[in-house]
Write a structure and sequence with these properties.
- This protein is globular.
- Helices cover 39% and strands 16% of the residues.
- It starts with a strand and ends in a 9-residue tail after the last helix.
- Strands 4-5-2-7-1-8-9-10 form an eight-stranded mixed β-sheet, with helices on both faces. The protein has a two-stranded parallel ribbon with strand order 3-6.
- The chain has one domain: P-loop containing nucleotide triphosphate hydrolases (Rossmann fold).
- 38% of the residues are buried.
- α1 (13-26) packs across α10 (241-256).
- It has helices spanning 13-26, 41-45, 61-68, 95-100, 118-122, 127-140, 158-161, 179-195, 229-232, 241-256, 262-283; strands at 2-7, 31-35, 88-90, 102-105, 108-112, 141-143, 148-152, 170-175, 199-204, 221-225.
- It is of the alpha/beta class.
Length: 292
Amino acid sequence: MKLAIVGKGGSGKSSVSWLLTKYFQSRNQNVLAIDADYNMDLGHNLGWNESIEIPYFSHSEVDFYQYQELDQSVYYVDMPAREDMKYFSYRPNDPVTEKYIYPIEKGVDLMVAGPVHTDRLYGHRCTHAYMSSLKMYLPLLKKRKEDIVIIDSVAGTDMVSYGMYLGVDAMVVVVEETPNSMGVYRQIKEIADEFMIPVYVVVNKYYQLGKLEHHISPDVILGKIGIDMGLIQYDYTTLTPETLSSVETIVHRLDSYNWDESLQWKRHKIWKERYDTQLEESKKEEYTFVNE
């Protein structure tokens, strides 16, 4: 399965990403942990730091294009309409995947998108442009059924609305029992429904305040995680039995779903068709300000 872990800033996305990664590893499954957050918290949680030099995937554009045998005249936005896109592979690794992963420990490989560099602050390309290779990489990544891909996302709805996670099996929204966190969940779900991406919820820092039932259907809640010092310190050996039971329940529910991986690239094709339609419609209209 490929899972994007999303949600409001501070909800515990990187902690839940770490917890899922470590749990799958404990089941002797191989995990490709992709840190797509500029803060790089997942990488740090797993034991990596900047003194260990690895190439950032946000700098993979040349390698991506060379592997796909494309020239610079081809834009990312037009790739879903092409029939000659090549698939990437995790275990065995294609050359691009091999270059950009770092083996953290047995069963866990790390890929890091990278921080915001100064060239992005003053360059002509927005930050999204540096994530385009990853956006196209995800739906084209083939793997064994038993292997897992966990993507720790940037906070909020930005990368979700950008279509970063069209190429996953599902999005898991990490939610706290606060109005702001549940509001971000609703925004993410609305976008995901438009993109036809399954959405589930992990409740983090659960206090049993009784506020969830009015906002989130119990059917989409995979599990609830309370406060745990082992989780705060990222020490799997000291997690409480309650936390281990919760993550077991979460993974058991995830294992029960039968997602169609062909939808990952199909969603990109549908997005491209809608994009082209909207582009043509916009050409018929006079320019107006956004608030009009």
